[in-house]
Amino acid sequence: MRIVEKEIALEIPRGHHQHVMIAQLPARLEIGEVGFRVSDPEEQWAQVRSVLELVAAGEGNLKKLHFLLFPESILPVAFLDDALTLIAAKFRENTVTVFGVEHLRLSDYRCLLERWAEDNAEALASVRADLDAGKVGDIPVNWCVIAIKESSGRLRVFLEAKSHPFFGEETVDPFHDLYRGKIFPLFRCRPTCFNFMTLICLDYIYRDEGCFCHLKAPWFPRIAGLEGEGLSKGVAGSCDRAVPISSGRAFRGHHRLLPGPDGSFPGLPACPAAA
Fold first, then answer.
1. Where are the beta strands (DSSP E) in 45-154?
2. What is the pLDDT of residue 259?
3. Phi-psi region of 188 (alpha: psi -120 to 50; beta: other; left: phi over 0)
């Protein structure tokens, strides 16, 4: 895996914090020919488009928006061009939009990388190398789009593939396994000195049945609502061990565990303080 630096032209006013809008929309999926697909693409696109139109209208503080994020939401791949066209035509300059897209064959993902080759040269080279090495072209890709409308009005499109499947997805069946992405852009804004990255889930940190990850960091209070194609899991922080939120048959869900009024997590065993 490799982090690659990408310089982008974003002018964020100095002395001001970045304005972020998070739109978490429900996603109803079904098993498709390759990985999972959106069960009602038209309805899903209507929901995503309504948020994009809201941002484009820019009422109130939305005119100040710098980052629009769609966590756990999935854009039907058939509407990718519609979303990018709307962003290019109606969004204000200096805006970053991040959204996930439904599973795609690796061979089709390569075609999209070739379409935006200038911004995705390293990822394209990595995918080509994997295919040349015998990687199955039909393997699904879990991926996202980082669409950046620069200060000049130019729209740049970056694609990123998830680095590792959840343990329940690791299989010899190419239609249920996932491609392992290896390239992760680190965006450096100019002239404003601000850097950021996008990651898809955190499933690749630690994989074990019944566990999501292993944390002993007191500065990491909790991870709530992390989701993957397998199981949505969270971790109560300052723990010497991980505790699962959900279990059962693999699916993309919207399980979110939040602490109660006393700070405890309902339904979970007490978690000892970190050493």
1. 67-75, 95-105, 140-149
2. 47
3. beta
